[in-house]
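Researcher: I'd like a structural prediction for the single chain below. Treat it as a standalone chain; there are no partners to consider.
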Amino acid sequence: MTTPPDAVRVLAPTGMLGAGFPPETLTRGLALGADVIAVDSGSTDSGPYYLGSGTAKTAAAAVTRDLRLLLRAAATAGIPLIVGSCGTSGTDAGVDWVAGITREILAAEGLDLRVATIYSEQQAAALKEHLDRVHPLPPAGDLDAATLESCAHIVAMMGHEPIAEALAAGADVVLAGRATDTALAAAYPLMAGLPAGPAWHAAKIVECGGQCTTDPRAGGVLATIDASGFTIEPLDPVVACTPTSVAAHMLYETVDPFSMREPGGTIDVSGATYRALDDRRVRVEGSRFDPAGQYTVKLEGARITGFETMSFTAIRDPHILGQITTWAALLRRMIGEWVAGTLGLGPGDYALDIRLYGYDAVLGAIDPATGPPREVGVMLLVNAADQATATAIAKVANPLMLHLPTPDMTYLPSLAFATSPAETERGAAYEFVLNHVVDVDSPTALFRINVPEARDA
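Model: Treating it as a single chain, here is the predicted structure.
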């Protein structure tokens, strides 16, 4: 693209591939003149398991349903489709998983689309050679080789450049590994030569589809980006964007509602204005993008912390509920004593987490209770070096979670396990251990871009 177009229209059908959207909203987006379809397929919101295990949180059937609609739309309109953070965490296996579903759909539908894959997984051995270029993000500390080696999977979070390179090479569909949510929607307008300020800000607003509208369940949005700003419009004709709903999305997953860092610089919306064009559309102007002196790429990594077994019981006894924290402390102490006496294990051999749902499990001490709860669900999570030990500890705790009285009770209470058997083996448990950025000489240096050869003439 040599001469920038007057505008680029980015269609964001949903906040996450596999979450679903009304098909008619996609049809409307094409009718409004969409130039590209961009959709996220991943997140760290659901914790480290998906990166650590290299598996997706979404069902294959749900991803297939959404992809079929999107691939048909892209083929019908002759516009690119960009999918980022494939397979939830953006591992190589996640990209291959989505690519496999894509190939099946293209074959079944008789669609002729060139599919590019971009891999973002990193090897610890290669990163160890450049530890001097890796910097921690708060609250992480300096990175060492042992931490890298402990990771089950490491991914680098790409900006828009690898995606733009794949599109420039002729890809109709780009399936990317881990990427910033904004890079997916910003890639095409930036590639077209539109200003970075409006392109990046619009990409931030549309990243979650309809979340910037008055009804997040109703489908996605269309962003029309031009030289001086962008306009946001819902794809559902009965839903609206308002200045408040659009501006509010800068509060979502950001440290500062007026700025957000990308690999190549910082989005600055401190001077942005939000104006209603009518009862459904919002016009945004005044956004800036400040390039960074050093291009950095964020690293994410997860490692196994042990193996977990869970038990869950419910308390309705008003006497116990009147002193639930005393009961929970007693439960913890007696589990420790029984485990030491029966299994010969000390506190350093395992970890216990007791969560009181209905009392303080979500916010803990920062949201103090004002009175005794009506009922409490007690979740016991045991973490040990192997599954058999974790389950043995949970089994030792079983009688206590079923019948433990408070010290002043003169009767034996009966609590209620939620499942039978009471112990559920959860398998390997993971933790995030990388919250670092690495200095790179090129925005595409850490990523492997595969684009099929051009079609025969």
